[in-house]
């Protein structure tokens, strides 16, 4: 009779061992079977265990078209055709879907009954958030629903989301689309802070966002107190997506604080900034701000913008829904050409040192309105030593100045240096002013009129106050004809007061007498 497999396997051991070996082997087989039974009975990747985990992970109700377990090299499961809903109302569309989901654990965690998931990978995730104020938003995200996003009770060591898309619906039926190349969340667990790494595209203006940092733990009863910190870069930003301006922005910085009060410091540069058809201008600057992550309101504590030799200091805020911008702008010993260059296609009309204080209001970007249509500014400026860049205009002013001083000769005289001072407003791309004081040696002018930032056209009328009499506003035969009229244009024995006009367009500006007050 042939020996049994058990007896054959133990015949090489001592008689004592051979006596107990069959019982040891049998006990091992029973324990193994029992362990397999208990592992299978408490297998965390069963469908009935997986669904609650996913519901907590995505703060949604999950349905899957297909699901199967995996055992090697890691225990887990694979699911395809996922649908995410925030509520069960059949007429409210789902908020998202995903093409593929892979969840992996470790055998060591499984055998030691540790509640831990090594890796969750999601591909093709598409989230659609309903428009602000819509019925779908009210039903999907009612007050207090932030508690749903506190994370799963089981720790997820790493959540990887690849090739995702976030759509935020707008009230007009359009949407803002944010392609997310990759989002990595580390150590995701209810009541704990998480680390994150983000690589995505912004919707508008289009640009590349990269960020990493820490978030949480989520404070569900006071979401605004949730801690947040990190660093970011915002590159290849197409400013042409903001109607009326253009340029390529690059920015980067760090932030920290709470979700309702994020302190951020950043630097930025735009090598080719322009407004409308203005000349591309290099601009760089620093920003210190406080951001409310709950409503996206921004308090701008200090912006320092550098354009050429000019530094502008700005304070203000961007608040409301839709967003309205209010800024206070100050320039000390700046250069007029630096400030005007981004607005003008042709050569700037004046150069010189400038002091500027103004308030700017930028209306919401609605109805396709361009930047200059949304911009409203009001303030004052002072240019103590200004030059016109247009040669004929400068020569005309020089001639005025020499005659106003009652000079006997005009040869070899240098171009005149003038000053410009007064209030100004900008509305719909038109700079308007009243009581603008314009001074040249021997005379001063009080002007009222407009300057068009789009085309550079100027139309200003005023009174020329001269130290000499009216006959000096012109030469030759005209001067002789005006001589008898001198007493009528003299005021308080201080010289003539003559109506004057500054008109024209780039390369064709002119300064002329306006004795008959032609408008």
Keywords for this structure?
519 residues, alpha+beta, 26 strands
Structure description:
17% of the residues lie in helices and 48% in strands. With 519 residues, the chain is of the alpha+beta class. The protein has a 26-stranded mixed sheet that branches. It is elongated. The chain starts with a helix and ends in a 6-residue tail after the last strand.
Topology:
Layout: H1 5-10, H2 15-41, H3 47-58, E1 61-70, E2 76-85, E3 96-104, H4 107-111, E4 116-117, E5 119-123, E6 126-129, H5 135-140, E7 155-169, E8 175-188, E9 194-202, E10 207-215, E11 227-238, E12 245-246, E13 248-258, E14 261-275, E15 281-291, E16 298-307, E17 310-319, E18 324-335, H6 336-340, E19 350-362, H7 371-374, E20 375-388, H8 391-404, E21 418-427, E22 430-440, E23 443-452, E24 458-466, H9 476-482, H10 486-489, E25 497-504, E26 510-513
Parallel strand pairs: 4-7, 5-7, 6-7
Antiparallel strand pairs: 1-2, 2-3, 3-5, 3-6, 7-8, 8-9, 9-10, 10-11, 11-13, 12-14, 13-14, 14-15, 15-16, 16-17, 17-18, 18-19, 19-20, 20-21, 21-22, 22-23, 23-24, 24-25, 25-26
Q: What do the pLDDT scores average to?
A: 79
- Number of helix segments? 10
Percent of residues in helices comes to 10-25%
Radius of gyration equals: 38 Å
**How much beta, percentage-wise?**
over 45%
**Separation of the first and last Cα atoms:** 131 Å
So what's the overall shape?
A: elongated
| Major pleated sheet | 26 strands, mixed
């Amino acid at each position: 009779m042939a020996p049994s497999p058990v007896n054959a396997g133990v015949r090489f051991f001592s008689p004592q061992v051979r006596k107990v070996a069959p019982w040891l082997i049998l006990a091992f087989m029973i324990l193994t079977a029992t362990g397999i039974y208990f592992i299978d009975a408490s297998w965390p990747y069963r469908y009935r265990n997986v669904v609650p985990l996913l519901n907590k992970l995505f703060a949604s109700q999950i349905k899957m078209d297909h699901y199967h377990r995996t055992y090697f090299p890691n225990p887990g499961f694979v699911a395809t055709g996922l649908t995410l809903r925030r509520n069960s109302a059949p007429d409210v569309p789902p908020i998202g879907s995903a093409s593929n989901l892979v969840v992996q654990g470790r055998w060591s965690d499984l055998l030691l009954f540790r509640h831990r998931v090594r890796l969750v990978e999601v591909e093709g995730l598409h989230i659609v958030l309903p428009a602000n104020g819509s019925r779908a938003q009210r039903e999907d995200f009612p007050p207090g629903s932030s508690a749903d996003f506190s994370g799963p009770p089981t720790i997820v060591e790493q959540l990887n989301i690849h090739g995702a898309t976030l759509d935020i619906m707008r009230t007009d039926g359009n949407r803002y689309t944010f392609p997310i190349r990759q989002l990595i969340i580390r150590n995701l667990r209810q009541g704990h802070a998480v680390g994150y790494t983000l690589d995505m595209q912004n919707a508008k203006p289009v640009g590349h966002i990269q960020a990493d940092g820490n978030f949480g733990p989520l404070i569900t009863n006071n979401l605004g107190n949730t801690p947040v910190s990190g660093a970011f870069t915002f590159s290849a930003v197409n400013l042409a997506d903001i109607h009326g301006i253009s340029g390529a922005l690059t920015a980067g910085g760090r932030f920290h604080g709470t979700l309702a009060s994020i302190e951020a410091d950043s630097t930025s540069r735009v090598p080719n900034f322009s407004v409308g058809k203005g000349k591309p201008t290099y601009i760089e600057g620093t920003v210190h701000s406080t951001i409310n992550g709950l409503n996206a309101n921004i308090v701008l504590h200090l912006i320092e913008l550098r354009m050429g030799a000019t530094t502008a200091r700005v304070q203000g805020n961007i608040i409301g829904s839709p967003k309205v911008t209010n800024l206070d702008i100050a320039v000390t010993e700046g250069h007029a050409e630096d400030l005007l260059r981004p607005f003008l296609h042709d050569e700037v009309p004046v150069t010189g040192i400038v002091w500027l204080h103004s308030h700017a209001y930028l209306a919401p970007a609605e109805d396709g309105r361009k930047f200059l249509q949304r911009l409203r500014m009001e303030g004052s400026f002072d240019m103590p030593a200004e030059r016109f860049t247009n040669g004929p205009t400068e020569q005309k002013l020089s001639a005025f100045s020499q005659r106003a001083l009652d000079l006997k000769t005009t040869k070899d005289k240098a171009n005149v240096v003038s000053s410009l001072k007064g209030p100004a407003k900008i509305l719909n791309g038109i700079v308007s002013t009243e009581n603008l004081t314009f001074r040249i040696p021997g005379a001063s002018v009080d002007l009222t009129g407009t300057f068009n930032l789009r085309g550079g056209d100027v139309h200003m009328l005023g009174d020329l106050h001269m130290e000499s009499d009216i006959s000096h506003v012109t030469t030759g035969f005209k001067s002789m004809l005006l001589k008898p009229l001198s007493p009528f244009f003299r005021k308080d024995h201080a010289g003539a007061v003559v109506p004057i006009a500054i008109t024209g367009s780039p390369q064709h500006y002119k300064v002329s007498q306006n004795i008959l007050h032609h408008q």
